[in-house]
Design a protein that fits this description.
Distance between the termini: 41 Å
Largest sheet: 6 strands, mixed
GO molecular function, one term: ATP binding
CATH superfamily of the largest domain: P-loop containing nucleotide triphosphate hydrolases
Order of helices and strands: EEEHEEHEHHHHEHEHEEHH
Pfam family, one: BCA_ABC_TP_C
Strand order of the largest sheet: 6-7-8-3-9-10
Oligomer: single chain
Number of strands: 10
CATH topology of the largest domain: Rossmann fold
CATH architecture of the largest domain: 3-Layer(aba) Sandwich
Domain ABC transporter: 4-252
Bound molecules: adenosine-5'-triphosphate
Structural class: alpha/beta
Number of domains: 2
Shape: globular
Protein name: ABC transporter ATP-binding protein
InterPro entries: AAA+_ATPase, ABC_AA/LPS_Transport, ABC_transporter-like_ATP-bd, BCA_ABC_TP_C, P-loop_NTPase
């Protein structure tokens, strides 16, 4: 069964058809990647799914529930978490503090229970700590646990952003260009983290990525979009050898 289903999705900004009739299904447990030249509409698709943007047209269904009109602040509770192309962390907080903010979305205590520091608040805090420590171990971040984000190397910050998304305990994680700005070695490590998220955590991954080495290494299926429209869908090799995709990339480069 598909975990995420996007049907005839479109958003127009004035005269710009940023996304224009995109449909795809993401199966539970797969890594599904969207590729395309600059300005193709990839990040806009992410912003529509995470509900930062309201579509002009179309439907988004997550786990059988129509989320086309769901407010953005409910999306994490439903089980969708994301990272951003330009890392969005609290720079003057530690890795641990950033992850605890992510874990906050799973808390069940009401504000009254919080103010009175009732048992459910305390057990929530213990549970959040335990979950966050597991993620720190899982992504090998123990050495950075109490370090400020601002002082961390870029590659580590990229992994912390993934850790923060995992702290929401999602079923679907959206990764917006996880390899951008990374060295070849860091990109190889990123491929391992993505594989581990899929195999060890059973997560479904929807990714936007330009780095074709990462795309080929981890993707079960790839969708190419050009000028807001879907162009080709298949394995990474199939999409990369599709003449329409090659032409779209060369045309853009030219
Ligand atoms: N909020 C907005 N207002 C107006 N135009 C927008 C807005 N967001 C995106 N666009 C336009 O939509 C088009 C698609 O942009 P988008 O950022 O989704 O492309 P992309 O495929 O993610 O590109 P890149 O690979 O460079 O990140 C572009 O022409 C962009 O200028």
């Amino acid at each position: 069964m598909s975990l995420l289903s996007v049907t005839d999705l479109a958003i127009h900004f004035g005269g710009v058809k940023a996304v224009d009739g995109v449909s795809f299904d993401v199966q539970a447990g797969e890594v599904f990647t969207i590729v395309g030249p600059n300005g193709a509409g990839k990040s806009t698709i992410f912003n529509l799914i995470s509900r930062f943007y309201q579509p002009t047209h179309g439907k988004i269904v997550f786990d059988g529930e129509d989320i086309t009109a769901t407010p953005a602040h409910h999306i994490a509770e439903l089980g969708i978490a994301r990272t951003f192309q330009n890392i969005e962390l609290f720079d003057h907080s530690t890795v641990l503090q950033n992850l605890l903010v992510g874990a906050h979305t799973k808390r069940k205590a009401t504000w009254v229970e919080d103010v009175l520091h009732l048992p459910r608040t305390r057990s929530n805090e213990r549970e959040a700590r335990r979950a966050v420590e597991e993620i720190i171990d899982f992504l090998d971040l123990a050495a950075y646990r109490d370090k400020m984000i601002a002082g961390l190397p870029y590659g580590v910050r990229k992994v912390v952003e993934i850790a923060r998304a995992l702290a929401c305990e999602p079923r679907l994680i959206l990764l917006d260009e996880p390899a951008s700005g990374l060295s070849v070695e860091e990109t190889n490590d990123m491929a391992f983290w993505i594989e581990d998220m899929k195999k060890d955590l059973g997560l479904t991954v929807l990714m936007v990525e330009h780095d074709m080495s990462l795309v080929s290494a981890v993707s079960d299926r790839v969708l190419a979009v050009v000028e807001g429209k879907p162009l080709a869908l298949g394995t990474s090799a199939e999409v990369q050898s599709d003449p329409r995709v090659i032409e779209a990339y060369l045309g853009t480069a030219a």
